[in-house]
Amino acid sequence: MRLYSHPRLHGLEIWHGLARTTALHQLRDSPAAYFAALDSFVAQLHAGSAATASGESLSIAAGFERLILAGGGAAAASAALTWPHLLAHAGPFAARAGAEAVWQELAWRNPLAFDLGQTRLKVFTRFASICHDRNESLLPFGARALPAALGRARLRDWLRPFLREDFGGVLLALPNAIHANGVAESSTYPGLFGPVQEIFGELFPRTPWAVCNDAVLVARGYPPPTGQKTLSVTLGFGVGAALWL
Fold first, then answer.
1. Given pLDDT bands bounded at 50, 70 and 90, which one contains residue 24?
2. What is the spatial distance between Cα 99 and Cα 153, in angstroms, rounded to a whole number?
């Protein structure tokens, strides 16, 4: 396993960014409040004053020159945001351009990509884009909704039918912050935390594979054409972000 990275692209954990005293993820059930809070939070990011519930600094994003939106909720967010922005891709397949860019970088023959979102699994091959909804009866929300071992087994079972021996490389994008040592922080999937190699490695015994954050993969597909500092925000179940420097 390798952790995919790009020297100019950095993931940002903004899902727990604070709009006044409320984290963004706590507002997603009310679209009007959610998008208003996101609009305010984007302005704070630009000013360098954005705060998070965990105290994590987001000062790296200060002064961004370009904002792009992508993902299934991007069109609704675009209609509500007052901050100048570009709607890059609305819909479930926003990560496809990023997958194609990574495939080209890694020079894989007959590549495959999984974009595991909080509510949907997207599968990309050279010739097709496929979307499957999460079955909440098998993969309920909440890290402790199932024992970790069972949750991981069910995640692997979800991916396994799409794998073939003739794939030359597999890219796996996860809805988690992933540290440089390959350890993923928690997500809404039971068992999806800890060393990524231990969770998914048995699926790829003889196939090269790489892993990255899902928002990073989306951003990889939309590099700034003239080098501007660009904030890429993905909107689906929640909100994710990555920054081009």
1. very high
2. 25
With the C-alpha atoms ordered 198, 203, 209, 215, is the resulting torsion angle positive or negative? negative
In the chain, what are the domains? Answer: 2-6+94-216 (3.30.420.40), 10-92+219-244 (no CATH)
DSSP 234: E
For residue 12, what are the CA distances in angstroms to 26, 29, 96, 175, 189? Answer: 18, 22, 20, 12, 20
Residue 208, helix vs strand vs coil: coil
CA angle 73, 7, 9 (to 5 degrees): 15
Distance of CA 172 to the CA centre of its chain: 10
Q: What is the pLDDT of residues 76-133, one digit of tens each?
A: 999 999 999 999 999 999 999 999 999 999 999 999 999 999 999 999 999 999 999 9
| Residue-wise pLDDT tens digits, 149-187 | 999 999 999 999 999 999 999 999 999 999 999 999 999
Task: Provide the b/e sequence for 176-198 (b: ≥16 CB within 10 Å).
Answer: bbbeeeeebeebbbbbbbbebee
pTM above 0.85, yes or no: yes
- Residue 16: which residues within 8 A CB-CB, separation 6 or more? 23, 24, 25, 52, 53, 54
